[in-house]
Design goal:
Blueprint lengths: L11 E9 L6 E9 L4 E9 L3 E2 L3 E2 L5 E8 L6 E8 L4 E8 L6 E4 L5 E5 L4 E6 L5 E6 L14
Antiparallel strand pairs: 1-2, 2-3, 4-6, 5-6, 6-7, 7-8, 9-10, 10-11, 11-12
Length: about 150
Amino acid sequence: GPGDDPHDLPGRLTALFNSTDPVVHRRVFGIAQFDLTSRNFDFTPVGPSTTGMMGLRLSADRKTGYTVAFRDSLGNRKSEFWVFDMASRKLVKTIEFPGPINFRFTLSGDGKDIYIYGSAPVMEIYDADTLQHKKSIDVNADLTTGLIVVPG
């Protein structure tokens, strides 16, 4: 679902949504941008729906979007990072990672890191360019609420 993305344009909401193809009636997901002032939106279908997705997070220059998608469910669930080129609204990269059962994700303020947190007092940090694990940080605190990271 959509969230508070500090890199979204003022008065706009850019997010991932599911829809149904009007011709063959298959579930598809896509990227939509809402103009909150005029109440207009545009939706670009990207591909077939998956089991689930987290919210879209934009890089500081709004050229790249990130989400976490899920395939399958329960014990067979796979977590994947998905990267979008926002100019073309196309999925350009996916990679599976060992996502915990219940977690959240966000980008660092500079957009260089992806944070996975919320299932334990440990935050996993991934490189946003390579999507590879960089390090784990035990913050010794409750991480079950939202996290917004702003540039220093």
